Amino acid sequence: MDSVQALITQIQGLSSSAGDVSRLHSNLKQAEETIFSESARLFSALDQLDPSIHSLGYLYILEACSSGPLTKERAAALVLPISRFINACAVEQIRLAPEKFISVCKRFKDQVMLLEAPMRGVAPLLTAIRKLQTSSEHLTPLHPEFLLLCLLAKCYKTGLSVLHDDISEVDQPRDLFLYCYYGGMICIGQKRFSKALELLHNVVTAPMSTMNAIAVEAYKKYILVSLIHHGQFSTSLPKYTSSVAQRNLKNFCQPYIELANSYGTGKITELQTYVQTNKEKFESDNNLGLVEQVLASMYKRNIQRLTQTYLTLSLEDIANTVQLSSAKEAEMHVLQMIQDGEIYATINQKDGMVRFLEDPEQYKTCEMIEHIDSAIQRIMALSNKLTGW
Amino acid sequence: MEGEDEPSGRMIDDEIYTNGVGEEEKRTRPIISGEQLDVEAYAGLYTGRTKITRLLFIADHCENNQTMQLEALRMAYDEIKKGENTQRFRDVVQKIDGRLGPSYGMDAAWCDTVDRRAEQKKEKLENELNAYRTNLIKESIRMGYNDFGDFYYAHGHLGDAFKSYVRTRDYCTTSKHIIHMCMNAILVSIEMGQFTHVTSYVSKAEQSPDSLDPVTVAKLRCAAGLAHLEAKKYKLAARKFLETGPELGNHYNEVIAPQDVATYGGLCALASFDRSELKHKVIDNLNFRNFLELVPEVRELINDFYSSRYASCLDYLGNLKANLLLDIHLHDHVETLYDQIRHKALIQYTHPFVSVDLRMMANAFKTSVSGLEKELEALIADNQIQARIDSHNKILYARHADQRNATFQRVLQTGTEFDRDVRSMLLRANLIKHDFNLRASRKQ
């Protein structure tokens, strides 16, 4: 009997019950050679199979087809079947051969990128992750691939939905580094700086035995985001950071540390000159946008400091203290900050005065009580987890 | 009240003096005051090396005042010639540069005589010391080293003097000897500017089992105070100076005059004590009052500060500044002390009020409103004043933080931090576990 046809019939026959499927699995493993050599013919025979019922067999065939050199035509041919497969496949069956599933999805991502349509890969990979994960705390190797596609396709919100899960099980450390790094970038794109800091912090402080480039890049972004969000940066890494990182990270990120020092002096002009002189370095790291945000945050930091000492202040004085060029510019900055909720103030245009107000939050509303209550619940759950460890 | 009587009393005193009376009254006139320093009277307070050092210091630091400089140099020359320090003689001659006439020029003959005499004395002392050492009589060896110390000190070799004095330690038999050694060591250390030694020898002397006589106790307190002053520990320095008993009198003139004790103690106390300590330890301190009588301006300014007459207090301070800058121990601390006193005045002024009109405050402190605003801004940012400035109406409002809101904020923040840290920790623990698993499986 024609081996291709034999295989197809086998798959069709043995895909009904769990016992059958495991037999099929062992058969397929033995027949791997054949599958590889006959991949082209098997591909054309795919329409005889139903991906939702014959997932395991389908998977083996797809894997054989997608291995091999990648060209645009092959990519175009394969993208659609793979995405359909991912949407339709049965979870238990693909979990029997996770490495194959992962490899198929990775190839899928490569194809999508080759075709320069990362958007096409976003939704399928999201489904793939959900199907592959054994629990919502499981980090699969597909997570970083997915986040990379989100970044390239600029679908930040979809990426954010994945980032909300807490991760505690990790297959491969490299996955974690990439996941946190890309995740950090997505959060920066969405201006969620505290979450970005958390993710980048995880990369920098993760246990590692040798330096890796991901940690270095993450550290650079970490410095910049720390300046934007907290207005300060300390070069001392926490004690649990690996000794490799503690010794070497700073050497690779010298310009950024100088930037942080210059920021610490509080002088805008100094910071601006520093940025100007080192523009190419920041640009080559693709961090120039972040650096500009650091500059903008300096004005904000100075204005915020004024709220601590003054009750009312003229726009002229604000412009002078913060080293802005005119009262008009000061007014724009203050207005922007009020809208972003970064300070509480009212502007009196007639007198050119700004009146700084206290934070109106009184911590007396129902929403606040619920917020506090849910926070308490979360922390109790976490503590239980800790004691159970 | 006290405030009313003193200024009029002082004015009467002044009138008596200006009526032209003898030497006696002239010397009781305050020497450290707001007027220009009377070099002769100032130098009259001291004896020994410190007199020369102080005169040379004044000469170095008043370049714009020729007469004062020449006066100081002249007195220094006379004083040095009475002693045996030829190196210093050469220095002072160079500084005079012939401006005081031929009688104050280089006297090479005198230098040679003194040097030769010194050589002979040194040989004699060495021979004596060797003789004593072979005889192994402790007391004579101790005296021998002591003489050596005195010799080196007179000739300006301070390091050798110190070493010799310290050597006597091994041959001290009574606590009196130990105290003698400590006092000498302290003297030389102060001259050399090594105040760590001063502190250690002061404590050594104070640990002596016999009770010390009051003069020695006072001397030790002064030395300790000087050491703290140099170390910028103004509070401790103030405490030491304030504890000095009036028995000090003129007994320690080779180091410090009672006027100095009053000035240093008063200024340091003003800069570092809080109100209750100031009242208790300075104003109500009967012992210290004797010292303060010698420098009535310092006494006045402390009283003014305590009764919130800040403008007059700051006036006195301004007047005293020029003379204080000529003092060898105080000059690098004058700026810091003045700043601290000014800040304390500002803080004390705003403390009892809910709102303060900045214009009235600027009047009280004799500055402009904008300058005052800048100073207050610095103090508020430093958290020394709890207030906010209404720049539009130029009013300072006291501000008391809302504890309840602050607590809620802190609680929520701590919760978020705990959450984040524990999750990171669990993640890292899992990574390490994975690493172990990987290594374990590789080994198999």
Automatic annotation (TrEMBL), chain A:
Residue intervals of the PCI domain: 192-361
Localization (cell): Cytoplasm; Nucleus
Biological process according to GO: ubiquitin-dependent protein catabolic process
Gene Ontology CC entries for this record: COP9 signalosome; cytoplasm
PROSITE patterns, per database record: PCI (PS50250)
Keywords: Cytoplasm, Nucleus, Signalosome
Highest taxon in the source lineage: Eukaryota
Main location per the UniProt record: cytoplasm
Pfam families xrefs: COP9_hel_rpt, PCI
Keyword Nucleus: yes
Family (UniProt): Belongs to the CSN3 family.
Protein name: COP9 signalosome complex subunit 3
Source organism: Ziziphus jujuba
UniProtKB/TrEMBL annotation, chain B:
Residue ranges constituting the PCI domain according to the UniProt record: 233-403
Key words, A-Z: Coiled coil, Cytoplasm, Nucleus, Signalosome
Coiled coil regions in record: 111-142
Superkingdom of origin: Eukaryota
Subcellular locations according to the entry: Cytoplasm; Nucleus
InterPro entries membership: CSN1_C, PCI_dom, Rpn7/CSN1, Rpn7_N, WH_DNA-bd_sf
Family stated for the protein in its record: Belongs to the CSN1 family.
Name the record gives this protein: COP9 signalosome complex subunit 1
Gene: LOC107433442
